[in-house]
Amino acid sequence: MSMRFSRLGALALFGLAASMPVTNIRALEGADSAAAGDKSIVSQAYKTPRAALLAGLQDFRSGAADSAIAALKYAAAGGEALAQWKLATIYAAGDGVPHDDVKAYEYFSQIIHGYDEDDPNWRDKSVVSNAFVAIGTYSLNGIADTKVRPDPARALDMFKYAATNFGDATAQYSLARMYLDGVGGDKDVRQGLRWLYLAADKGHVQAQALLGQMLFSGQEGLRPQRARALMWLTLAREAAMDAKKDQWIIDVYDKAMATASESERRVALSYLEDHLKRRN
User: Fold this and answer.
1) Running DSSP on this structure, what letter comes out for residue 38?
2) Phi, psi torsion values for 142, nearest 5 degrees
3) Could you say which residues form the signal peptide (predicted)?
């Protein structure tokens, strides 16, 4: 089990993280459509960080990257967490700007430093949670040739905070991986499986696949639960969309199905039906 995650710039780990705040963005734009819809807001001096945020989001969606970045930077400097998150993801992906993980790291850090857990702004909950996961990932891997060095202990803290306080499935999966591999602290299979199950139950595809793989083969001293494993592997296989990134999921599923008995498949189907009913 390799603990090295892919480069954050590709946003592989932020598939969910990049999608979570989109709802917030659309809600923001819908709630303030009268202001955001007026193009004059782009040309005039920004009256508030909030106005700059709305202008920046609108410009970015329309393809005006330069004015969008300027507006978002103004909003970020004014403490708008959503602007800080948007800039972080833009630089992490190199979306309309040169790829720059250091700038992404700095904007994600601003979100964390600006978060007041005693008086949280729940409008920004998903943005803050995503920032903790991002900083955890950067801390785990480091950024080559920069001051951001690998710091597994800090990564563990970041993932644990997001997993515990926000119930973030990606954080739970990352935390599980660290416990299972003994990275950032002592190996703890029991804790690893606990967090892995929580992430899998939330629909985290990689968590479902890893949990299924472990249960099917009885890894880490587990008693094999092949039918239960097939349920998790089936859920992961159905959700696997990226043929390249998710090939390992497809391979594990195919191997398990090829060696499972007819009885195990029938029981797995029953488990799957119960799981889907509970989720609905």
Assistant:
1) -
2) 75, 175
3) 1-17
